[in-house]
Amino acid sequence: MKHVAIALLGCGTVGKGVVDLLSRNGQLIEEQLETHISIKRILIRDLPKYEQMDLPDTIALTTDFNDIINDDEIEIVVEVMGSADFAKECIEQCFKRGKSVVSANKDLIADYGIPLLKLSQENNVDFQFEASVAGGIPVIRPMYSSLNSNRIERIIGIMNGTTNYILTNMTERGLSYETALKEAQEKGYAEADPTNDVSGYDAARKIAILATLGFHSAVTFRDVSVEGIEKITHEDIEHASEMGYAVKLLAIAQQNDDGISLNVHPAFIPRSHPLANVGGAYNAVYVRGNCVGDVMFYGQGAGAFPTASAVVSDVMNVILHFNLTVTGKRKYVWHDTKLTDPRSIRAPYYLRMIVDNAPGVLSSISGIFAENRISIRSLIQKDETKEIAEIVILIDASADGLVRDSLKKVTSLSCVRRVANAIRVIEI
């Protein structure tokens, strides 16, 4: 039987998951590949900390990357560190020394994916990163393999488990945003500093990666327009439910004749749509191809074993390429990228405002929208006291820039105390 030695860069949650998965399913993997996989070395930062971890005695721990890069027996390096810049340096050295790389690092791929893919091809090695998006959900490889006969028109997904957990519990249990976030932190779904998740940056990196592959375009995280869920309140959740919608943080990439748009933002989505029923910390990615139509990928988007499953699958794919002598032969096609102006993207909007409870308020607000040729689909006055009232407005599909400009004028009205929220409505 053939033998392939690999090394891990990092041994946190995902790295330990890779070790345990190979131990648990090693025989099954060997039967499929006729190849034995062994972890020879693991690069870590704190040697005493990891010496207490339950790792096989056959694995050598090191704090020196040179121990890995100079070991000619190591053919595949698995990068699960999370740091983008240091990881990039390590991966570049691996390629130049003829070592293929598997990465789970979304920050790295979102910023440097195309240059690294090109470098891997120049050195006739593989670079695979299934685990960089949606954990154990197989979506990266289908994007450039199973769906590659299609022109991908749209990718829309729930790609962050933390925000989906928060919004699900606000919806199903009536929790406030602050309470749901605190619970997510206590259960380990959210970090002590949750900014990367709740502000939409994590999802933005993932949609940039999928758009790069699906649209054959050189886009990065910096091309994504991002809004988070921090302004979502229990009132917004209730109003959405009354109107037949669920509130989700969506990552959306669209491609048409005008160019490519990349957005992450909270949205009302019809309860009848499959994405509306993705609950808890689960992820889902909904893809539309011009021939295949709509397909959806659903599952656990994070966690030790789900993510390790994607990592080891990539390792197996690299070994398959070894055995077929096609390593580094996968070709990618990149087109010139034309990004559409985010302000030109059209969508219906849900608007919630706190206003004076006085005659003429509704006509003043309606007048501003009429001036900008924005049609009001419905206007409902909700809770009110003698002095103030809450109104909820649904407007027809309008350009984002026009909506924002109109809301600035609405806010300047003396009778409007504040525009509490403006959320896009996705009508799929």
UniProtKB/TrEMBL annotation:
It comes from Megasphaera hexanoica. Coiled coil: none annotated. Pfam families: ACT, Homoserine_dh, NAD_binding_3. Pathway: Amino-acid biosynthesis; L-methionine biosynthesis via de novo pathway; L-homoserine from L-aspartate: step 3/3; Amino-acid biosynthesis; L-threonine biosynthesis; L-threonine from L-aspartate: step 3/5. InterPro entries: ACT-like_dom_sf, ACT_dom, Asp/hSer_DH_NAD-bd, HDH, HDH_cat, HDH_CS, NAD(P)-bd_dom_sf. Residues 350-421 form the ACT domain. This is Homoserine dehydrogenase. L-homoserine binds at residue 191. The keyword Lipid biosynthesis does not apply. Keywords: Amino-acid biosynthesis, Methionine biosynthesis, NADP, Oxidoreductase, Sodium, Threonine biosynthesis.
